[in-house]
């Protein structure tokens, strides 16, 4: 088969696989961030146009590349934002497969067949599907990171140096955490070049120049985002961390009182970390260990992701933030290592040689793993959230690894109720009014009422007090929430306007 068809398959097969949950959930979106952030942003672009895009570069607290791309696509095409989002998930999955194929072939020197198998295993593994479920910015950053590293073997050519700098710039423009991985990897490669100079009395000047230039370029964007995060933001007052990097590099997970990462004790935190790792990587870890091989990029990337994932176990009061995000990104290097063992070629890793594992046995393992992968990934994509596949039905890991892709902020089966409730609310709203919405309904409310202020609360904490503070000067306050997040409103002078299933609408 011609090489161009391998490239095509590395994009097309992941694209089609990732399309399965989108077709089943049609016409509703899947993914938490999709309806909470991406759909409202596209809708705002369609309403406000290019003016909104300029504010995205200066006012947002995250790398804006994906928002800008999706926003302009929505503005130019005028297509329903939900349809755009439903296309982006499969498209990014296909691009991820293509980038992994290119990395395996160009940088690792693998054959077309082995590179294709690696791309397919990586993109169809359920942890990677979890990333493409709603972490679109994260996936985009990983795509550009992988493409950046793919240029390392050919940096003696000016064209590849140019691509190296462009992809590193786009990586820094795509996602903050992946930018950290990029910077750590580049710094390690720079130190490695200096070590080679000391040991061998020489180094490649072009490589070193490319590394330093990329570090400088990426650092500018990273620092700009970081300093912007430290700026005043009413939604995050008295909140040192929440979901993002607010307030510092190291986090005390136990003392946090607001945000996504709340743990009453160290034991609870440890249980979450261990259980997520076991559920996420038990099917592949054995093969990844057997397939391990020395590689500068994979070594430093895997090591840093492991540190980010497990640092809270050793230092719960002073660890890197967002431990679950680091852990989910382990899916990339671990699937590469696993493919190195499972693909029955002439490659002999350290463990394969010592254990004398034949190509026949590796072929058997590949068949077993693919069968397991089909069962786990297919059920993960299609099973309803109220009856997920038992393997994924863990209360401690559900917030990090959703038990089913068939949901967004609410189960897909509930989306029609949400839309109906918002339409009903629209008939009863006064002119001088605002909306306070629980996080699960905030994106829906912003989409339904683009000209109304929508204040978001995440639980009975500082976020709610912030939303009430912002809403205090409006003539009427409408609250759209769900059981059991409505206790405060029932007890503090809000009247129940109507209810629909689990949805409650209050007014004051």
Task: List the main descriptive attributes of the protein structure presented here.
single chain; 508 residues; mainly alpha; 2 domains
Describe it.
The protein has helices spanning 3-25, 32-48, 50-59, 65-77, 81-107, 112-124, 126-134, 136-150, 158-172, 176-200, 205-229, 266-290, 296-314, 323-328, 331-342, 350-355, 359-382, 415-428, 439-448, 462-470, 487-491, and strands at residues 433-438, 454-457, 476-482, 495-500, 503-507. It has 508 residues and is mainly alpha-helical. It folds into two domains: 3-372, no CATH class; 412-507. It has a five-stranded mixed beta sheet, with helices on both faces. Strand 4 and strand 5 form a beta hairpin. The longest helix has 27 residues, at 81-107. The radius of gyration is 24 Å and the shape is globular. Residues 229-247 have low confidence and may be disordered.
Largest sheet: 5 strands, mixed
Distance between the termini: 68 Å
Radius of gyration: 24 Å
The arrangement of helices and strands along the chain is: HHHHHHHHHHHHHHHHHHEHEHEHEE
Strand content: 5-15%
Lateral arrangement of strands in the main beta sheet: 2-1-3-5-4
The multimeric state of the shown protein is single chain
Which residues form runs of ≥5 with pLDDT under 50? 229-247
What is the mean predicted local confidence, pLDDT?
Answer: 86
Q: SS-based structural class?
A: mainly alpha
Shape: globular
Number of separate domains = 2
How helical, in percent, are the residues?
Answer: 55-70%
- Provide a count of the helices: 21
Can you count the beta strands? 5
């Amino acid at each position: 088969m011609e090489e161009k068809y391998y490239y095509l398959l590395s994009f097309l097969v992941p694209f089609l696989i990732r399309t399965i949950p989108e077709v089943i959930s049609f016409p509703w979106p899947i993914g938490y961030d999709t309806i909470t952030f991406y759909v409202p942003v596209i809708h705002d672009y369609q309403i406000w146009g290019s003016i909104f895009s300029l504010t995205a570069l200066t006012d947002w607290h995250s790398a804006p590349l994906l928002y800008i791309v999706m926003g302009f696509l929505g503005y130019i095409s005028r297509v329903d934002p939900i349809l755009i989002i439903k296309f982006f998930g499969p498209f990014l999955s296909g691009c991820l497969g293509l980038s992994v194929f290119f990395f395996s072939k160009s940088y690792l020197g693998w054959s077309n067949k082995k590179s294709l198998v690696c791309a397919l295993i990586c993109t169809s593994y359920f942890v990677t599907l979890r990333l493409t479920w709603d972490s679109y910015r994260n996936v985009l950053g990983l795509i550009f990171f992988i493409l950046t590293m793919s240029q390392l073997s050919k940096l003696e050519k000016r064209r590849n140096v140019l691509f190296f700098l462009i992809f590193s710039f786009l990586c820094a423009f795509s996602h903050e955490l992946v930018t950290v991985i990029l910077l750590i990897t580049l710094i390690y490669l720079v130190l490695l070049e200096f070590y080679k100079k000391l040991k061998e009395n020489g180094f490649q000047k072009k490589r070193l120049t490319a590394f330093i230039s990329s570090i400088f370029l990426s650092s500018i964007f990273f620092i700009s985002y970081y300093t912007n995060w430290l700026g005043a933001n009413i939604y995050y007052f008295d909140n040192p961390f929440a979901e993002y990097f607010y307030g510092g590099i190291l986090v005390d997970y136990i003392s946090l009182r607001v945000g996504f990462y709340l743990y009453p004790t160290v034991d609870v935190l440890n249980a979450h970390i261990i259980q997520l790792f076991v559920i996420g990587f038990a099917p592949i870890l054995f093969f990844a260990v057997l397939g391990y091989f020395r590689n500068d990029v994979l070594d430093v990337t895997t090591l840093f992701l492991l540190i980010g994932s497990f640092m809270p176990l050793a230092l719960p009061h002073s660890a890197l933030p967002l431990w679950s995000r680091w852990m989910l990104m382990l899916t990339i290097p671990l699937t590469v290592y696993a493919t190195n063992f499972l693909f029955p070629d002439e490659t002999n890793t350290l463990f394969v040689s010592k254990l004398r594992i034949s190509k026949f046995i590796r072929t058997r393992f590949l068949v077993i793993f693919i069968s397991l992968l089909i069962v786990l990934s297919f059920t993960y994509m299609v099973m309803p959230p109220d009856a997920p596949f038992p393997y994924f039905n863990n209360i401690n890991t559900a917030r990090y690894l959703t038990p089913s892709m068939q949901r967004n902020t609410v189960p897909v089966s509930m989306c029609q109720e949400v839309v109906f409730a918002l339409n009903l609310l629209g008939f009863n709203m006064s002119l001088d009014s605002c909306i306070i919405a629980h996080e699960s309904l905030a994106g829906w409310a912003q989409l339904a009422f683009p000209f109304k202020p929508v204040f978001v609360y995440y639980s009975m904490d500082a976020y709610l007090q912030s939303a009430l503070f912002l809403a205090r000067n409006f003539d009427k306050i409408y609250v759209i929430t769900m059981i059991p997040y409505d206790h405060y409103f029932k007890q503090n002078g809000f009247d129940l306007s109507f209810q629909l299933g689990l949805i409650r609408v209050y007014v004051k």
